[in-house]
Amino acid sequence: MGKILKRAASLATGLALAVSVTATAELPASAAATCSASFTKYQTISKGSKGAQTKALECLLRDAGYSTTVNGSFSVHDAAKLAKFRKSVGLSPLKVAGPRPWSALLSQGSRPLLERGDKGADVLRLQRSLRALGYTKVTLTSTFGANTAAAVKSAQKKRGLKQSGKTTNALWSALQHGRVSAVPAPKKKPSSSSSSSSSKGAKALAFAKKQIGDSYRYGATGPSSWDCSGLTGGAWKAAGVKIPRTSQAQFRSGKKVAKSDLKPGDLVFFYSGITHVGIYAGNGNVVHASRPGKPVGTIKMKYMPYQGARRPG
């Protein structure tokens, strides 16, 4: 009877171990879920980045054979793994993922010949890779359409390949090694109101420059003598814009402008109490009417205590 009990206990222990091993063996499979990596725009990821795109990058690195913590928080460890991946495909070993590292990771895998009309996971992989490079007309549909073909031709042209619009082994290799350069971001066209303001500013400045050499007289508004706000008012009147008479009132009108964003024609104010104003002339200079005995001229802004700037019109 004792032997039977011992055998039963041994069998129970063996079954428990088998269940334990089976459960442990299933964990990696469940952890290796497909990476959710479809985005309209792929962000630059570096140490400290967080969110869905960070998690996607971590997942892609893991699938490429680099152990990362797929938790949506890019750690020092993750950044080091990214640098190793970059080095492995021929990119500089930086710890930042921009367009080309993204494209390289997203395109990892087999290199099938794809062309218009094809559908499936490989097409989506290609589209993600192209989208990461800035081909914004490529939509992540898993269907190889006209926009995908156009982007493929563009990438082939960049690499000096035959522009077939089909994914050859050479194109896949270029994508997977981060050798296809990103599409430059389109330049923003200035709004019509911005263009109009710039044009008026140029006219105001041109008027002010024509008055250089005229005398200063307190309260004067031209045509041959000016005080500071009289000159700025006359200049903007010549540009078709009426502004208040005094420097303090001019400071309260128009659009506030940062010092770093000054454009020719902007009104620039100086001294406590906003007691002086000039017209920005570019390169840190203003045209102004300064004081009795000194004619209208140009001066570096740095020689007067800056208080702010406004853009009329």
TrEMBL record:
Signal peptide: 1-25
One Gene Ontology MF term: hydrolase activity
Family of this protein: Belongs to the peptidase C40 family.
Sequence segments annotated as region (Disordered): 179-200
UniProt biased composition (Low complexity): 181-200
All residue ranges annotated as the NlpC/P60 domain in the record: 198-313
Naturally occurring in which organism (per UniProt): Microlunatus capsulatus
Top-level taxonomy: Bacteria, Bacillati, Actinomycetota, Actinomycetes, Propionibacteriales
Protein name: Cell wall-associated NlpC family hydrolase
SUPFAM superfamilies in the record: Cysteine proteinases (SSF54001), PGBD-like (SSF47090)
Keyword terms: Hydrolase, Protease, Signal, Thiol protease
Xref: InterPro entries: NLP_P60_dom (IPR000064), Papain-like_cys_pep_sf (IPR038765), Peptidoglycan-bd-like (IPR002477), PG_Endopeptidase_C40 (IPR051794), PGBD-like_sf (IPR036365), PGBDSf (IPR036366)
Keyword Hydrolase (UniProt): yes
